[in-house]
Amino acid sequence: xxxxxxxxxxxxxxxxxxxxxxxxxxxxxxxxxxxxxxxxxxxxxxxxxxxxxxxxxxxxxxxxxxxxxxxxxxxxxxxxxxxxxxxxxxxxxxxxxxxxxxxx
Length: 104
What we know:
The chain is an alpha+beta fold. It contains 3 helices and 5 strands. The strands form 2 sheets. The protein has a 3-stranded antiparallel beta sheet, with no helix packed on it.
């Protein structure tokens, strides 16, 4: 009898530990799409320049997409005299953005 109760208890614990979270695909103006966790909800308050904003304040999880053209990317590196520190391409620009986020 104890083995049966133990087996049932273990079964309930294992079932309750399974995550039921699914993903959601978000498409922006047929330009791109992202697969996001379903625990995120749409937001408009994270960044006024963002094309896409999703958040979960409880989990402190945020997704923000800001679109820049290639010319804007190159211009921002050149105007700030950063071409010696970062290559004037997408890799240099993404390094600049990541390092900027790490400082905040």
